[in-house]
Specification:
Elements: H1 3-17, H2 20-23, E1 37-38, H3 50-60, H4 74-84, E2 91-96, H5 97-109, E3 115-120, H6 124-133, E4 136-141, H7 150-160, E5 164-168, H8 180-189, E6 193-197, H9 201-204, E7 218-223, E8 234-239, H10 241-248, H11 258-268, H12 271-293, E9 299-300, E10 307-311, H13 317-326, E11 329-330, E12 332-333, E13 342-346, H14 350-365
Parallel strand pairs: 1-11, 3-4, 3-5, 5-6, 6-7
Antiparallel strand pairs: 2-8, 7-8, 9-10, 10-13, 12-13
Helix pairs in contact: 4-11, 5-6, 7-8, 13-14
Length: 366
């Protein structure tokens, strides 16, 4: 059989068996960043000091790689409870990043005809995972200033009766911190689960964690990725024990590997260092915001996260993104997310921030 015939048969079989919704998707794209100043992925830019790395390496030498990981690591979960301020009567579940936890929740709710609702734009995986598991995704547009359109949200909840409402607070990609009163109204109107995604909580200083006692249908997502541990892929989900027991039935066994467990527990033992890094990022975010706001032609969005969204002059987004890339500075172009002429920059080290600002000023003058 020649190559063209074999390829044709493969294409036919894929068309026969892969769900049309999956075939219509595009895979999540990660921009190559070798040799670039990487400010595109909301990562903490600070590495650990050498003495901390040495201590961590000694800890990993004690890990038994020949054994399966602890399926419910109590010591780690206790550390996470203290670090995140989890109420004593709430249950906690760990995931391979918060993405896995979002997928677990949606799998538990995935009945044909059911819907997931979120403000739009939001974290792109909300929409993608909804499609993966066969739920219909309803996006409710944010206002022009990227704030929550609470009346539109409430109307959409009444119309669609979603199985799940997702609220990222602060919002990705805008960095906007939706008003607590509006979030309460959403929770109280929702017929199913409400998941508040607090991935960027270390940079906002606000949480709805105490609300868990008021709302049994509220779940809260957190992640260690933004605290300098993106490479570990550790997320946590907090909520009512009855709901969490149902979700735990579909969690894959041993989903958190031994190296992640040991590394996360070690890192939480250095929580002061992590919190100092977050404070530094918050301060640098304000410097970056003020510097960008002073540049002509840019509309810079105030942020409570570790990144800043800005809108370029009309029709200039692609040119400015390419100009920065030519100067070895990688940020995020949001045109593919339905936000033409909108770019998002992660807060880096002071040196990286200065390099970005210099490159941006140069591109704007071209």
């Amino acid at each position: 059989m020649n190559t063209s015939s074999r390829d044709a048969r493969t294409d036919d079989r894929i068309a026969d068996w892969v769900r049309p919704q999956i075939r219509a998707l595009r895979a999540y794209h990660v921009q190559l960043a070798a040799g670039l100043i990487k400010l595109d992925a909301m990562e903490n830019p600070y590495a650990w000091p050498p003495e901390v790395v040495d201590e961590w390496s000694a800890t990993l030498r004690e890990v038994s790689l020949n054994r399966y990981p602890d399926p419910a690591p109590q010591a780690l979960m206790a550390s996470l409870r203290e670090f995140a301020g989890v109420p004593t009567d709430a249950a906690l579940m760990l995931g391979n990043g918060s993405d896995e936890l979002i997928q677990l929740i949606m799998l538990a709710l995935a009945v044909p005809g059911r819907k997931v609702l979120a403000a739009d734009p939001a974290f792109s995986m909300y929409r993608m995972i909804s499609l993966f598991v066969g739920l219909e995704f309803i996006g409710v547009p944010l206002r022009a200033d990227f704030d929550l359109d609470i009346e539109a949200m409430l109307a959409a909840i009444a119309e669609h009766r979603p199985a799940m409402v997702l609220i990222d607070r602060p919002n990705n990609p805008s960095g906007r911190l939706f008003a607590a009163a509006d979030v309460r109204r959403v929770i109280e109107a929702a017929p199913g689960l409400v998941v508040v995604d607090e991935a960027y909580q270390p940079f906002s200083g606000e949480t709805v964690m105490p609300w868990l006692r008021e709302y049994p249908h509220l779940l809260i997502l957190r992640t260690l990725s933004k605290m300098g541990l993106a490479g570990l892929r550790l997320g946590l989900l907090v909520g009512n024990p009855a709901w969490m027991a149902e979700l735990d039935k579909i969690r894959l066994p041993y989903n958190i590997n031994v190296l992640t467990q040991a590394s996360a527990r070690f890192a939480l033992g250095h929580s002061k260092m992590l919190e100092e890094q977050a404070a530094r990022i918050r301060a640098d975010r304000e410097y970056l915001y003020q510097s960008m706001a002073a540049m002509p032609g840019l509309k810079v969005q105030p942020s409570r996260a570790n990144f800043i969204l800005f809108r370029t002059p009309a029709g200039q987004g692609e040119r400015i993104f390419a100009g920065l890339l030519a100067r070895r500075v990688l940020i995020k172009n949001l045109a593919g997310a339905g936000l033409p002429d909108c770019l998002r920059v992660t807060v880096g080290t002071p040196e990286e921030n200065l390099a970005f600002l210099a490159a941006l000023a140069a591109v704007l003058q071209e």
